[in-house]
Amino acid sequence: MTILVTGGAGFIGANFVLDWLAQSNEPIVNLDKLTYAGNLETLAGLQGDARHTFVPGDIGDNALVASLLAMHQPRAVLNFAAESHVDRSIRSPEDFVQTNVVGTFRLLEAVRAYWNGLQSEAKTSFCLLHVSTEEVYGSLGATDPPFTETHRYEPNSPYSASKAASDHLVRAYHHTYGLPVLTTNCSNNYGPYHFPEKLIPLMIVNAMAGKSLPVYGDGMQVRDWLYVKDHCSAIRRVLEAGQPGEVYNIGGWNEKSNSEIVHTVCTLLDELRPKADGTPYSTQITTVKDRPGHDRRYAIDASKIERELGWKPAETFESGIRKTVQWYLANPDWAAHVQSGAYRDWVQTQYAGTAVA
Ligand code: NAD
Ligand code: DAU
Q1: Does a structural domain hold residue 190?
Q2: Is 32 a pocket residue for ligand 1 (Cβ < 6 Å)?
Q3: What's the CATH number where 294 sits?
Q4: 188 lines ligand 2 (CB under 6 A)
Q5: Structural domain harbouring 332
Q6: Is residue 354 part of a domain?
Q7: In the chain, which ranges are continuous DSSP H helix?
Q8: How far is the CA of 101 from the centre of ligand 2 (A)?
Q9: What predicted TM-score, i.e. pTM, was given to this entire model?
Q10: Is the C-beta atom of 215 inside 6 A of ligand 2?
Q11: pLDDT by residue (tens digit) across 34-84?
């Protein structure tokens, strides 16, 4: 038995690979294009481990995916591969259409051909698990109930629109061809190996470097935070017991404003790594120009996965954010290495001239 994971050198995919192999001997074939967000250093601990086969390549490369499927005969394919950063999708939407829409379509085609060729038991038990996001549901008002699986799709950014398109294709391949698929829509993740272009790792890395902590607009946008290892355990549970064709929302019931998140990170750093001059890290917070089309609030209703599959997160926000800050303090080299020349160019472009206060 083997599983094929795509995007397994990125933040969530790599955490998934590491957690999977820490608790199972079932091998993983890991297909990743190694974009700026893919980092083999995260998987360095698996060097020489015969259970992990890394293959550099694109989910949109039909011939490559077909040959991997034929060679390894996986019982499941888990699709983590994506362009994932909203701000980048605003500046360069085409990459998002290419990977998230065209790439997912080509992956589906390769998987459909493979699945059609499977016999009896292997065909019945096979599944494709598509990892998606709550952002496909759009933005909530302050008093709206959290997103359920039946919430209307209302994506607002090129990123979320491209993920919505991929979800629709996955759904259509089940409905039309009978392909056994599972889709998960998760809220904001945080934890180890998170690329420091996203809010929480950016704040930790900038704070430590004595740089400003850029909060978009009024900082009162709300996100619903889930520790990445809880996302991984939810995906394992869906793979194990999810019903083909079903969608499962995943979340931690942890709504926080961005301003609260940034102040929490600062307070933890004040405790764990106080500044030599005694000033609090919160003095580094600055307000910058808002993200265009910025979604105001996300919140996930995760009762279906709890009710039907018995999954609940293990971490509270307080325990997860403390572990996260501690991880970045203990692993400065990982963060330093991912902040390459290309990363520095992105920060320069994204934040140049955006200060409003
Ligand atoms: P990430 O950007 O950290 O990693 C994406 C990985 O995919 C990288 O390793 C990259 O090299 C790889 N990749 C990109 N294009 C590829 C292609 N064409 N072929 C093969 N590999 C490719 O993203 P992440 O935060 O780990 O997100 C993983 C998945 O989870 C995405 O589908 C994302 O939409 C979804 N998701 C993310 C979050 C979050 O908070 N980060 C929340 C919910 C859902
Ligand atoms: O909800 C799930 C989504 O969460 C995933 O699908 C995406 O892949 C993931 O990137 C994330 O999207 P967000 O846009 O919510 O995450 P980000 O970390 O970019 O931003 C979180 C909030 O913080 C958002 O309201 C914007 C704000 N922000 C972000 C950055 C990078 C700032 O205020 N300042 C910043 O510098």
Answers
A1: yes
A2: yes
A3: 3.40.50.720
A4: yes
A5: 3-349
A6: no
A7: 11-23, 62-72, 86-91, 93-96, 104-116, 120-125, 158-177, 199-208, 228-241, 258-272, 303-309, 317-330, 332-338, 341-351
A8: 21
A9: 0.98
A10: yes
A11: 999 999 999 999 999 999 999 999 999 999 999 999 999 999 999 999 999
